[in-house]
Design goal:
Shape: globular
Strand content: 25-35%
CATH class: Alpha Beta
Number of domains: 1
Number of strands: 10
CATH architecture: 3-Layer(aba) Sandwich
CATH superfamily: Dihydrofolate Reductase, subunit A
Strand order of the largest sheet: 5-4-3-6-1-7-10-9
Distance between the termini: 8 Å
Largest sheet: 8 strands, mixed
Length: about 190
């Protein structure tokens, strides 16, 4: 069975997005040579990228015409196998994307059962919250940017069940950001 790995950048005060949709300006505080290298290494582990609808649409728009300074990562993002969970999209036209409709947990459970490399979720906080609650997330990889923004879209939503995690790795970056890897300790995992 493939693992589901969540990868997100977030602020020190817990937001993965600012007050406005796609306000990711805090990423500047974390980005540098070390995070770029980590992104490339992580790319080699990805079998499928999984997105919710909003993140899929934003990622497709950005990476399809990304600036030259991120050309190597853009090539990886555009060539990887992708899946988008949505009951409102009629099609998913970004290169190598399949549309998953119906119950998100059921669709992702089937995706995990396929042979291949791990499934990675970038962004997609609402989808991730549903998958975490269903016991489908195996690992969280977080980059904590050294910035407080005071308000925005929190990565971890209030009101769900208790989730225990075991720290697998922590690494500080020259930018002041911190990379964290956690494995979920969860009886519902699978």
């Amino acid at each position: 069975m493939r693992r589901l790995v969540a990868w997100n950048l977030m602020t020190l005060d817990g937001y993965f997005e600012g007050k406005e949709p796609w306000d990711l300006s805090f990423h500047e505080r974390a980005w540098g040579e070390e995070l770029e290298e980590f992104s490339k290494q992580q790319g080699a582990e990805i079998g499928t990228l999984l997105f919710g609808r909003r993140t899929y649409q934003g990622m497709a728009a950005y990476w399809s015409s990304a600036p030259d300074e991120v050309a190597q990562i853009a090539q990886m993002m555009n060539s990887l196998s992708k899946a988008v969970v949505s009951n409102t999209l009629a099609s998913a036209d970004w290169n190598n994307t399949q549309l998953l409709q119906g119950d998100a947990a059921t669709a992702v459970r089937s995706l995990k059962a396929e042979a291949g490399k791990d499934i990675f979720v970038f962004g997609s906080a609402e989808l991730l919250w549903a998958l975490l609650d269903a016991g489908l997330v195996d690992e969280y990889r977080l980059c904590i940017a050294p910035r407080l923004i005071g308000a925005g879209n929190p990565l971890f939503k209030p009101g769900s069940t208790l989730q225990d995690m075991d720290l697998l790795e922590s690494r500080s970056l020259k930018t002041g950001a911190v990379l964290l890897r956690y494995q979920l300790r969860n009886d519902k995992q699978g």
